[in-house]
Write a structure and sequence with these properties.
Number of strands of chain B: 5
CATH class of the domain at 38-157 in chain A: Alpha Beta
Helix content of chain A: 40-55%
Strand content of chain B: 5-15%
CATH topology of the domain at 38-157 in chain A: Oxidized Rhodanese, domain 1
Order of helices and strands of chain B: HHEHEHEHEHEHHH
Number of strands of chain A: 5
Strand content of chain A: 5-15%
Shape of chain B: elongated
CATH architecture of the largest domain in chain B: 3-Layer(aba) Sandwich
Oligomer: heterodimer
Structural class of chain B: alpha/beta
Largest sheet of chain B: 5 strands, parallel
Largest interface: A-B, 64 and 75 residues
Helix content of chain B: 55-70%
CATH class of the largest domain in chain B: Alpha Beta
Order of helices and strands of chain A: HHEHEHEHEHEHH
Chain lengths: ~200, ~200
C-alpha cells in the first residue's frame, strides 16, 4: 500500500470532520432542557431561600413596591373572582409561553412572586421556572387561600412550609409505640363486610 | 508512514474524545419542560388517603409507599410498609433505583403535600414515570381515616359509604379491638347507619 501523504488539505478535512461528527452526534438531540441540575434544585428546595411569606407580600402590595411582580398561576376564572392587587394572571398552560418567558428575561431586575390557591400548586410552577434557570422567581407560602385570611403565618411554621407542619401527634392515634399494625386475624370481622359494601357502592349509582 | 501514524492517532484520539464526551450528557433522561408542566397540571399524580388506605387493607403488593420526611419523624410514626427516603436523599442513585420499577406504584408522602410533591417534581423531571403523591399527607390521613368527619345528613349515600369505609379502616389501622377502640366504635357505628337509612328512603 502506498504511503499516506497528508497535505494541508487533508489536515483541514480531518479538522472539519472532527467538528462535524460531534455536531451530527449532538444535533437533533435537544441540548440540556434544564440549566439547573436536579441536585441543585433539590438543594434550593431544602434551603427554602426562594420563599416569601404572605405577610411580606402584603407589605409589598401595601407599598406598591415596583421591584416585584406578582404572578397568579390559577385559572382566569379564579383570577376574576379575586386576586392580589396588581397581580398578573399567568394560567399554568401559559407559564412556558413566549410572552411570559420573555417578560421574565426582560425584567430580570424584578422579583417575580408566584402564587396559586395553595402552596403545593404554586410550588410546581416555581420549581419548573427555577430549573429553567430563572433566578428571579419566588413562591409565596400558604398560597392565595391563606393570603386572603389576612393572618400572618403561625409562628411554629416559621422557616418551614405551611402545608408541611404536622397538625397532629400522629403516633398518639395508634397503639404499640406509634406503629400502625396491620391486624392478622381479629380485624377481618369488622373490615371485610364494609370493604365489600364500598365496592358495591362504587360499582352502583 | 509517519504521517499515516499521526493520522491514525488523530482519528483514534478523535473517537476516544467522542466516546468520552458521550456520557458527559448527564440527566439525558430529563423530560421536556412542556411535558413536566403538563403533568404538573394533572390531578392524576395524586392518590387520596382513601385510595392508599384501601390498597393497604387489601395488602396490594404493587403499592410502594415512600416516606420523604426525615428519619426521626419516620421512626416516630410511619404508614405500614413505608420505606424512608428523606427528601434530601431522594436523588441518591440507590434511592432512585428503588423508585425505578414499573411493576410498582411509588407513592410519596410527607406531613402535608408539598414535600412529597417536590420529590415527585424532581423524579418526574428525571423521567421516573410511575411516581405519585398522597394528597394531603399524614395530616389528611388523620383527618380522613383516623378521625373522619361525619357527613351532613343531607349528604349523598356515597358520602356515607365513604364515611363507613373510613371508620372501618380507622379501626383496622388502630389494630382492632381495644377498649378505646370499642368506645369510639359504638357511637360511630350507630349514628351513620341511622342517617343513611333516612337518606336512602328519601333518595333513589
Amino acid at each position: 500500500m502506498a504511503k499516506i501523504h497528508l497535505n494541508s488539505n487533508h489536515w483541514a478535512a480531518i479538522l472539519l470532520l472532527m467538528l462535524v461528527i460531534p455536531g451530527f452526534l449532538f444535533s437533533g438531540r435537544p441540548m440540556r432542557y434544564y440549566p439547573v441540575s436536579a441536585g441543585e434544585m433539590l438543594q434550593e428546595v431544602l434551603d427554602m431561600k426562594d420563599v416569601i411569606t404572605p405577610g411580606q407580600v402584603r407589605e409589598i402590595v401595601r407599598k406598591g413596591d415596583p421591584g416585584y411582580v406578582l404572578l397568579d398561576v390559577r385559572t382566569p376564572e379564579d383570577y376574576i373572582v379575586g386576586h392580589i392587587r396588581g397581580a398578573v394572571n399567568v394560567p399554568m398552560h401559559d407559564l412556558l409561553g413566549k410572552e411570559n418567558l420573555s417578560r421574565l428575561k426582560e425584567e430580570a431586575g424584578k422579583t417575580f412572586i408566584i402564587y396559586s390557591d395553595d402552596e403545593v400548586n404554586g410550588c410546581g410552577p416555581w420549581m419548573l421556572l427555577r430549573q429553567l434557570g430563572y433566578e428571579n422567581v419566588k413562591v409565596m407560602l400558604g398560597g392565595y387561600d391563606f393570603y386572603v385570611t389576612g393572618k400572618p403565618l403561625p409562628s411554629e411554621v416559621e422557616g418551614k412550609c405551611y402545608d408541611e407542619h404536622p397538625r397532629y401527634d400522629y403516633a398518639k392515634f395508634f397503639k404499640q409505640g406509634g406503629q400502625m399494625n396491620l391486624p392478622e386475624k381479629k380485624a377481618p370481622k369488622i373490615v371485610v363486610p364494609r370493604r365489600k359494601k364500598k365496592v358495591v357502592a362504587s360499582g352502583g349509582c | 508512514m509517519q504521517k499515516g501514524t499521526i493520522f491514525l492517532t488523530v482519528v483514534a484520539l478523535g473517537i476516544g474524545l467522542l466516546v468520552w464526551l458521550l456520557p458527559e450528557r448527564p440527566e439525558s433522561s430529563d423530560i421536556p419542560p412542556q411535558k413536566l408542566l403538563q403533568d404538573l397540571g394533572r390531578e392524576t399524580r395524586f392518590f387520596s388517603t382513601d385510595e392508599v388506605a384501601s390498597l393497604l387493607i387489601d395488602r396490594d403488593p404493587s403499592l410502594h409507599l415512600i416516606d420523604v420526611r426525615d428519619s426521626v419523624s419516620y421512626s416516630k410514626f410511619h404508614l405500614p410498609g413505608a420505606v424512608n427516603i428523606p427528601l434530601a436523599h431522594i436523588l441518591d442513585p440507590e434511592n432512585l433505583d428503588l423508585i425505578s420499577g414499573d411493576e410498582q406504584t411509588h407513592v410519596f408522602y410527607s406531613n402535608g403535600t408539598i414535600r412529597a410533591n417536590q420529590a415527585w417534581v424532581l423524579t418526574r423531571r428525571l423521567g421516573y414515570s410511575n411516581t405519585y403523591v398522597m394528597k394531603g399527607g399524614l395530616n389528611r390521613w388523620i383527618e380522613t381515616i383516623m378521625n373522619p368527619p361525619l357527613p351532613p345528613s343531607t349528604a349523598s349515600s356515597e358520602a356515607f359509604e365513604l364515611y363507613d369505609f373510613r371508620v372501618a379502616a380507622g379501626q383496622y389501622f388502630r389494630g382492632g379491638t381495644t377498649t378505646t377502640a370499642k368506645k369510639t366504635k359504638t357511637p360511630l357505628k350507630v349514628v351513620p347507619r341511622r342517617k343513611k337509612k333516612v337518606v336512602a328512603s328519601g333518595g333513589c
